[in-house]
Design a protein that fits this description.
Length: 203
């Protein structure tokens, strides 16, 4: 929410363009940092080798899956760029960005699930309800993005991106299935295992 408001003010009102869009992402970093300042001031910064080693062991496994997941998520754009002109690649990329707005909720839910599993909470009591909750709410998210997505493309990005409408409508239903896979990813990631979703075919 803070990023969206910052983008409206900095990009829309002040007209700072691309530089303003980058600055508008700052709240996503400032808010979590400000939440930890009180603990940091109380305990003072210190280096803990046991925590460092445990974090390295956990992160080295999980980040392999996270990196592959990121590359896999954009591999289709790279393949398309080898066969289509940049105008088509740009339209497809915009359609993908707008369709992936559906994933904001399941991604946030996945972060919570991953932390709960990592803290040794009983995953069986969390994973099932989380997937059911995700399935219901993401269905509403798909409908909401279906209604607002064309307006975002035509008026947010401009009428030049009208060709993005068709791939957007093609990609949108698949976001429901992709959201379930992303949420299930949180369970093995919470146990420090490589993400099974990282090996999926590009959407």
């Amino acid at each position: 929410i803070t990023t969206a408001l910052a983008a409206v003010v900095i990009v829309g009102w002040l007209g700072w363009g691309v530089a303003g869009a980058l600055i508008a992402t700052a709240p996503t970093l400032v808010l979590p940092i400000s939440g930890g300042l009180r603990m940091l001031i109380r305990n003072r910064p210190a280096l803990s080798m046991p925590v460092y080693r445990a974090s390295l062991r956990y992160g080295a496994r999980v980040q392999v899956g996270a990196l592959l997941h990121f590359l896999n998520g954009r591999f289709d754009v790279l393949v398309l760029s080898a066969f289509a002109p940049l105008s088509i690649v740009g339209a497809y990329a915009i359609s993908q960005i707008v369709a992936e707005l559906v994933l904001l909720f399941p991604n946030a839910l996945g972060y919570v699930l991953r932390a709960q599993v990592a803290s040794s909470a009983p995953e069986a009591s969390l994973a099932g309800p989380a997937v059911r909750l995700n399935g219901t709410l993401v269905a509403f998210c798909v409908l909401g993005v279906a209604a607002t997505g064309p307006l975002m493309i035509l008026y947010g990005f401009g009428p030049a991106f009208r060709p993005a409408l068709v791939p957007f409508l093609v990609l949108l239903p698949g976001m429901w299935f992709l959201s379930a896979g992303g949420l299930v990813q949180g369970t093995p990631a919470g146990r420090g295992q490589r993400s099974v979703q990282a090996w999926a075919v590009p959407h």
